[in-house]
Each structure stands twice: as structure tokens, then as C-alpha cells.
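Q: Here's a chain of 491 amino acids. Please give me its 3D structure as C-alpha cells.
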Amino acid sequence: MKTMKNTLLAALAVALAVSASPAAAQADFTKFVVVGASVDSGFIDSCWVKHGQTDSWPAIFARQTGNTGFQQPIVGEPGLGPCQILTSLAPTFSYAPNTGKPENLTLARPYDNLAIPGYLGASVVNCKTATADVPCKNALIDLVLRGSGATVLQQAASLKPTFFAIGVLGNELLGPATQGTAIDGVTLMSKEAYAASYKTIVDTMKAAQGGTGKGIAATVPDVTTLPYFTAVSPIIGLNPSTGAPIYVLGPTGCPTGVPACPVPAGTVVPLPLGSLMKLGYGIPCAVAPTLPKCNTPLPDNATLIGTTGVPGLLYPGEVSLLKTRGTEYNAQIKTLAEGAGYKVFDTAALLADIAAHGREYAGMTLTSAYLSGGVFSYDGVHPSATGYAIVADALVQFVNANYGSSIPRVNMAPYLLTGNSSGGFPTSSYGPPTQEQIIEFAAAYFTPEVLENFWQTLGVPTEDRGLVLGNGDDELPMPVAPRRAKIDLTD
């Protein structure tokens, strides 16, 4: 078995690795600096932790350029989240202790990777410390800025980067989407407000780089296409008499006096609602009469069940608004970043292409499918280490094409064989799960503890998470995953 694995490793290395030729002089990667949010920080499986940060796309990119001095605000194992550990494909999970400690606090200068989970463009520009108000309601700010009295933008400018990256600043869309409450001018920021912060970022960094921006700026993906929003279908079955689809029940657009009715085609069911569907929410009693909450609608907006926040449905009008606003944000990014000299990398197109066509490496096919695809981690929003490596490799090719450099492409072999570059996390392979299995998985994964951390990471205050659903004896607890010891999924 070991010989076979070594043979496969050698074959993959030959098929995937390229010669490590030095970068051309057209771009200088000596001081590579990044600002952004969770996707740029290496956030993975609902947590911020060293093994995720080691394979953040900026860290991989820096290694490919030969930059050995790239510094990050490392959170030591077992991380902060808590990190979720898959213990069986039943599924069950265990939680890593939520006790990760900073390992690089004494660095005598700002970090090169200044991306902070939950950050907005306004956070990059304005926040010097954690406060009680958005955009600075984020405890991780102090871990990164370390009481310097400077914002992320000021710290980035002080480093005088030779190559600068503006990562995916998309929480302005992701926050409202994960709440299930996309309301223009209320939860959803205007394109003008988004552009104001973005302009400050590019103008400041252009000046710090000597009057011409040198580096890249990433667009915002269509958040409604992330596995978090696509894994659970709004269709729960087919009518045996007519063959027509049976849609989950929601509370909006129903006839007068009818509390629950089928949602329209195009409605999005966020992944954590699987916890409620297990109890019968959104399920007609004609389909599952034994479920205690059958005929009860899934929530339309972010909702509290007891003290646990859950997202709401995204109706077609909200989905359309999120897509339109994302397109508007990206138009602002393109105009402002290119006007300052930065090359704009189309993250939205990359993720759309992966969703449509996947990626094949030495006979292994990766897709954006939830659980079985390999590109996204268990939270359905952030990439796996393999997904981050795919992003880094795409950026290497983009930079080479736009700057005339010759950065070696990313060797995908270790990611495909062991899950990350350090070889510490074995992968498992199994067929695409059924909808029932995805709902079971979501109910096990998105426990109250994980959901609370998810809201906090996005900076959503408790008071903004909607109304209480159920009360008194009618209220039902959220399902909680059994805690078991970690097992080797390769057995």
C-alpha cells in the first residue's frame, strides 16, 4: 500500500509540478502585502487556525515567488472557532478546544497578511481596535493590529509593499445573504458607499507604492453560488400524482390567513436550515406527518430559536438583488483598481468556472459540490486547503500573464494526496451525498456553538438576527452533534 501511495505521489509530482524558475524583473515580490477578509486569511472549517493559514492563498503565493519573509498573525493549534473535526461520515463531529493562542504577536512590524475574518472595506479604512459597533465589532482586530493605533490600511501602507493585493472584500454581500435578509439600503450597502472605502484603499496604497499601484485586486464572487447556498435544494420531492416539484414552505407571499406556503422557484435555502428541516420546518405534513414542526414555515429572515441565530430563506427578489449588487461592486473595483494601476483578478469568474467545469489533476476531478467536491471546506463558504491552492495557482498564472513574470505554478500533489501542504489531514472519497444526507450533515455541523461563531465572524449583532421563532413549550432545541474522538477516515 505504501509503495502504491509513493508511486502515485511521484506521478502526481511529475504531472503537476513545474520547474522553480525565478520571477522576472517586471514584478518585485520582495515585500508582498495583502489586505482582505476571511477568504484571504486562511479561514477554514469555521475557524482561524495555523494549518489553514499556512495554506492561505497569500501564503502559497508568497512561497511560489520565493518570498521567505511573508509574515501572518498565526493562531496556534487548535485554533479559534472552535474548529470542527469530522469524526465519521454518519456524519458526526467533534470540536477542537477553542484555545488557540497567537504565535507571532511579538513581530516588531506589521504583518504582511493583514486580512481579518469578518472585515468590510470600511473596516480596512477605519478600524484601529475592536469596538461595539460595525464595522469594528470584531475581536480579531486586536489580534492583528496589536494596539498599534493604526488601521489595517495604515499598517499596509507603512510596509511600502513592492507587490500589493486587495483580497475579496465581499462581506458587504455575504453578511446580508447569510442572514437571509437582503434589503437595499438597510442590510445591503449601496455601490457608492462600497466604492468610497475602496477608493481610499487604492489611493492610499498607490501613494505608498510611489504613485503607481503594483499588484492585484480581486473581484467579489456571486455569494449565492457558494455551497452554503446551493447544497440544500428548495425542492423536497415530486408529487406522486402530478410529478410536479414539492417546494419547502416559507412564510412570504402566502394567501391571507395562510401562515405557510410553497416558496417560488429560485428561492435559496441556506445550509444551516437543515437543522430546522430535521424538525419538520418547511416540510408539509402530507410529506412527513411524524415530524413535530411539519407545516411550520422556514424563516424568511434571520431568526432566533431560543438564543441561537439561524439564517432565513432568500427569496428570488433577494437573490436577484444580491447578484446585481455584486456586479455593481465589481464594476467599482475594476474602475478604481485599474485606475490606480492594479490588475483586476476575476474571482467571480474563477469560482463560476470551477462550479461549471471543475478542475482535473492527474485523473482526479475536483468540483465545488458540497462535501464531495473537495474545493470547499465544511462550512460551505471558505475553501479547503486544496481550494486555496487552486486559487493561488490561478493567481500565479494571472500575475505571470500580466506582469511578464515566471513564478512557478503550484504543485497540487500534496493537497490532493493528504489534504494540505503539511500532509496532516487525510482525505476521504465517497459519492455525491443525497439531499437527505446533506440535511443530516447540516444539522450535525451547524450546531448552536458553530452558528454563534459564524454570526460573530460576520459581525452581525444579536439584536439584528430577527425575531424569536417559537416560545414556551412550543420551542424546540437545535440538534447538537455527538462529540466523539477523531478517527482516521482513510481506514
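Q: Can you summarize the key feature?
A: Residues 229-315+432-474 form one domain.
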